[in-house]
Amino acid sequence: MAVGSLPYRDPARACEKIVSNFKDIPFWPQLVKRSFFENMYVQFSERLPGAVVDEKDKNIYVNTAKDFSKETEIVYEKFLNDDVDFFSISRSYAEGLYKIIEVIKDNNLRPKFIKGQITGPISFGLTVTDDKKRPLFYDPDIKEALVKIIAMRARWQVRKLKEASPRCIIFIDEPYLVSIGSSFVSLNREEAFSSLNEVVQAIHQEGALCGIHCCGNTDWGFVLATDIDILNFDAYNFYESVSLYPGELSAFLDKGGSLAWGIIPNNQDLLKEDNNSLGEKLEKAIGLLVKKGIKKQDLLEAMIITPSCGLGLVDEQLSDAVIERTVNFSGALKERYK
Q1: Within a domain: 5
Q2: Structural domain of residue 208, as residue ranges?
Q3: How far apart, in whole angstroms, are the C-alpha atoms of residue 110 and residue 233?
Q4: Is the pLDDT at 179 greater than 90, yes or no?
Q5: Reported pTM
Q6: Is 65 part of a structural domain of the chain?
Q7: Of the candidates 198, 195, 227, 190, the residue with the CA atom closest to the CA atom of residue 211
Q8: Does residue 6 fall inside a structural domain?
Q9: What is the rounded distance in angstroms from the CA atom of residue 94 to the CA atom of residue 81?
Q10: Whole-angstrom Cα distance, residue 262 to residue 305?
Q11: pLDDT by residue (tens digit) across 272-321?
C-alpha cells in the first residue's frame, strides 16, 4: 500500500502507475506539484469559514477581520441536516481522486479495497493560522467548525470512492502528532483526542476502515487509544519508539487492528537498501515487539508494507524506485512467510 502523494503532474500517468503496481489497494494520488490547490491543507479547505487561499504567494489562512458568521451558520446547518454533498471536494482541488475512479471503472478493475486520505484536524489546526498567525486549533469556534468540516468531508470521500470499490480505507494524515507532549506546542490532549476520534467515527459511519498516518515519532499510546483500524508509522526510522507501547499494541491487535509498516525509505536512503537489508531491519523491529510479549504470528497477520511517507516532493525517478521496492519487498515477504 502507498501513502498518498506522488510527484507527477499528469493525473492520468499517476493513476496508471498506481493501478499497475497497487492492484489490491489502489489509492487516489495527491499531486502537490500539479497545483497549489493540491497542497495537503488547501486540498481540504473548501467551505472553511473565513478561509483565504493565496495561490500567488502559496499561502492559506483564515481572515478574522472579515465577518464570516453567515458562512459558519451555513456549515452547521448543513452538518445538522446531514448534507454530506455540501462538503464535497472540487475536482480542481483533487484531480487524482476523480481520475482514479474513472480509471478503475473504465478498465473494469476489481480491487480488494480503494484507499483515500484526508488531512487530520490536529495537523490542519496547528499548521494553518489566522491573519494574526494564531493556529486555528487555538480558536475554539474555528476549531469546532474545522473538525466538523473534515469529518463530513471524509464521509463524502468514502461515498465517492465507493463508486470504484465497495470496500474503502481512509487514512487521516497527522504529521503534527509529533507535537503531542512537546513543550513547544500548547495542545490539550483531551481536545486533540476528541477531535481526532470524531473524524475516525465519521469514517466508520460510512462503513469504511480508518487509519492514521504519522511519519514522525509521537505518543503511540495516544494514537492507538483512538478507534482506528490501521496504524501507519515510519518503521524505517522510528520502529524502536513503537516498541515502547507493547500493552497498547497488544490491545490494538487483539481488537483486529493492523500495522502498516513504513519500512521503505522515501528518500535517498533507498539507494543503500535492498530486500535483504530491509528484511533484516524489519525482523529486528518485529523482534523488539516479540520480546515485549507480542506474538510474531499476530504481527505478520496484521502487517501491511508501505513507504515511510508520501512521495509528493521527491523526483519522479526516486518515486518510481520507491514504488517498485515497496511492491517487490512486499511480494518477497509473502513468499517468505507463507
Answers
A1: no
A2: 11-337
A3: 27
A4: no
A5: 0.95
A6: yes
A7: 227
A8: no
A9: 25
A10: 6
A11: 999 999 999 999 999 999 999 999 999 999 999 999 999 999 999 999 99
Task: Give the model confidence (pLDDT) of 228-280 as tens digits.
Answer: 999 999 999 999 999 999 999 999 999 999 999 999 999 999 999 999 999 99
In a domain, 72, yes or no: yes
Q: Which residues contact 175 (CB under 8 A, 6 or more apart)?
A: 123, 214, 215, 216
Cell 508509522, located at residue: 233
Q: Indicate the pLDDT class of residue 119, thresholds 50, 70 and 90.
A: very high
Instruction: Give yes or no for a contact between 323 and 17, defined as CB atoms under 8 angstroms apart.
Output: yes
Percentage of residues of the chain with pLDDT beyond 90:
93
Contact between residue 310 and residue 256 where contact means Cβ atoms under 8 Å apart: no
pLDDT of residue 318: 97
C-alpha cell at 303: 502487517
Q: Which residue has the cell 508494507?
A: 305
CA end-to-end distance (rounded Å), the chain = 19
Question: Taking phi first (over 0 means left), then psi (-120 to 50 degrees means alpha), and beta for anything else, what does residue 293 get?
Answer: left
Q: Say which residue the cell 515487539 belongs to.
A: 289
Please count the structural domains in the chain.
1
| CA atoms within 13 Å, Cβ hemisphere of 282 | 30
CATH of the domain at 235: 3.20.20.210
Residues 229 and 211 sit within 8 Å (Cβ to Cβ): yes
Largest Cα–Cα distance in the chain? 61
